[in-house]
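Proteins fold reproducibly. Look at a concrete instance:
___
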Amino acid sequence: MKKSASYLLVPFSAVLALCIGCGKPEPPPEPVSNEPPKPLVMVTEAGFPPYEYMENGEVVGVDIDICRAIADQLGRPLVVVSTNFEAIIPMLVQGDADIAAAGLTVTEERKELLDFSLSYATSGIVFISRKGEEYKDAASAKGKRIGVQTGTTSDQFCVEEVGVVPTRFDTPRQAAEALKAGKLDLIIVDIDPARNIAGNDDTLVISSELLCMEEFAIALKKGQPNLLASINGALESMLNGGKVYASLAKHVAHCAYDFKPASTPSEASAEAAKADGAAGAGETEKASE
């Protein structure tokens, strides 16, 4: 019996030692996915040159160049969806698109619904009217027949600052056609499409002063910090490398109208600070007189 017990103890000890020496088993390798990367879906409205416009059946422009650089950084193909402007924000909120770039102005109301990237361009809104019937400010436009693009800051300005309920259109170009047909007295639109519409039209004139300043940024659904960081990283690289300005110059030249590309936000801030300083100096001189 002792001999038999000794015989059984040896293999048990060996097994015990083997188990102690092995430790935890290594996890199996993760399966390699052969699925293609998920597309980055950009929503826009392709009637806002030079930021987005149609060419040979394809949406092109500054915003598309920027969003393609973001998609490249993420290793994802870019898919561009063009829709009416007023549908852009609902599409983002509902998750039907990943990002929006459409000369989209950052406002406090929109920031309650969406997150915004760094600003990549400054702009402003203006009046377009028939030559000889110029309007210079909100007060001069009161009581007039005004056209705007639906859901834009021009639409908001018309209601809140001019005090007129406008006639709304899907695109600035449609509003301009109604103006030329005598159905409107003026339209309110961003300076970039305004120059595209009226820059080479001797019958139309653009107001000499901006009605207000705006900043453009890329919008996305709230709660996506990694995507927002990637967008800002790509934008910062493009801004610092002059690629946004170069894209503006390229598409402005293609649209064939006279235009100096918008300054970057930092340049705009510097200009504003300079203007404020000059104003302050003027006030000091008056005080000393």
